[in-house]
Each structure stands twice: as C-alpha cells, then as structure tokens.
Sequence to fold (135 residues):
Amino acid sequence: MTLNTHTPDVERWLSTHGWFPGRDIGERAHEIVSLRVHGAREQGSPLTPLEAATRIIRLYGGLELPYPGAEPEMTLIMNPATGSRGDVRQISELAEGLGLQLFPVAFETYENGIWLVGETGRFFYLHPTGGYFLG
Fold:
C-alpha cells in the first residue's frame, strides 16, 4: 500500500516543508518509534508499534507542517515521541474503547492534540476533550 497519493496542491505544500517524492527516513523511524515505546513503558501504559504508523513516520517523520491559514498559527509535528506526560494512558483508553491498537504519529501544537494511527491505517485525533475519528 502506498501513502504517496497526494493531490498536486498537497504535494506542493508538503514539498515546501521538507517532504519529497521517495522520502524515507529509514532506520531513524524505528529509533523515533522506540523512543515513544520506551516513554510509554515509563508511564506504565505500553504502546505497541504498528506497521501503518512506522510507515507514516518513515515518509513524514521529522516534518513540521503548519496548517495553511490557521490563526493563531498551528503546526503538525510529525514525531510520535512528542506529547505530554500522561498521554499514553489516554491513548490506551481510546484504543480500548475502539477495540483496536493505536500508535501516535504526530502532535498538533495549538490544542496539544495527538494524531494516532490504528492498526487498519485509519487516523484518529486525541484532543483534550476526547477522541475523534479523522479518516
């Protein structure tokens, strides 16, 4: 399954912020995932790395993607190791409620939300007010 199915406008926007066709951060993706797994273990709620999440991190990991036209400024930081203390418990609760495994792939700066990917490749958003399905 390929994730590089961007429209020209999206590809142009991504390219402006460091992405390029064929981008792959390789082993660095596994290092970033391992950091998050280790941090989760320290918080007492283990996270299982998911293939879909690792694939996304390989393609987009390390990018900082500002939301176009957002006022105030809002950025999606493509790093699963970014988050806040105690967020793993919330991720685990959401995963349990959905009946599937989730793994973080990004952090949104404005409202401190976490973008998650499920084992089926679907995206979810963990906001301070609760969990939401993104698509």
